[in-house]
Amino acid sequence: MIQTMEYHNPVLLKETVDGLNIHEGGIYVDVTFGGGGHSKEILKRLGPNGKLLAFDQDQDALKNSIDDDRFTLINENFRYLKRFLRFHGVKQVDGILADFGVSSHQFDEAERGFSIRFDAALDMRMNQNDKLSAFHVVNEYEENQLRNVLYNYGELKQAPAMARTIVSARKSAPIETSAQLQEVLKRFLPPRRENKVLAQIFQAIRIEVNQEIEVLKEFLEQTPEVLKTGGRLSVISYHSLEDRLVKRFMRNGLFEGEPERDLYGNFEVPFKKIGNMIVPTNEEIALNNRARSAKLRIAEKL
After folding, report:
1. Are 167 and 137 part of one and the same domain?
2. Torsion 211-38-235-155 (CA) sign
3. Could you say which of 76, 139, 248, 250 is the most buried, measured as most Cβ atoms within 10 Å of its Cβ?
4. Of 176, 209, 242, at which residue does a domain stop?
5. C-beta separation of 38 from 103 below 8 A
6. Is 91 helix (H, G, I), strand (E, B) or coil?
7. Which of 280, 283, 276 has its CA nearest to residue 293?
8. pTM listed for this prediction
9. pLDDT, tens only, 138-151
10. Which secondary-structure segment (H or E) carries 230?
11. How many structural domains compose the chain?
12. Residues near 244 by beta carbon (within 8 Å), at least 6 away in sequence
């Protein structure tokens, strides 16, 4: 079995699980199982009658499944949270943990195509069975679609010119690898900021391939129904697009606009915020550089 520390070093481990306010006999969900680090910590705090269900759509994560009668690993996307909980006989839970983003394993496996460090086929699928890959986005999207992906998900001001350049380059031959994509876009990669811009480009394409924003919204919209009153939602996000949605939903139960008011003029919201946003310490970042952009938010179901 692959060891957790090799597969994925869990970020804000204690803080995220503390945020769930675990009861020994409760039912909890880890929707981003990965290497199982957060799940193992939850199980440590559960009693013999507690229960933990975990989701992960990545086939590789199945190798890390935990041999424990209290544990169930569901090989599905967490956008189907309510459906698969009910399939397993669970309607409501005491806490939900989510650690968004790409696992260390996914970044470190060159052939998955997530990292700018390797020359690999353009893939970036978190679920290897999905049809849409980075190759399809780069080679088959219309120019305006590419522009929107790069601008909305990579927050790249040069997105229009980048999209035109990609469309022009692929006319002569498909862009098949990450190195070829970097070569096509090299004039947009300034010295000393090359890796930052490349990371934004890769992030944008990855988000599109995996429908990460749509999945996040679908997941959050299910949480008020799935959580019991007093249940906790403990969420780590890694970029402003995700964090903005999490923050707004925890505050208003909406992604845009203001919630409705009750008869007394009070806003009707599903959650109350627990504490302030938590970020990793300098010590944790020194041990795990990928923790540097993590933001943890915790909310309780009203």
Report:
1. yes
2. negative
3. 250
4. 209
5. no
6. coil
7. 280
8. 0.91
9. 999 999 999 999 99
10. strand 227-237
11. 2
12. none
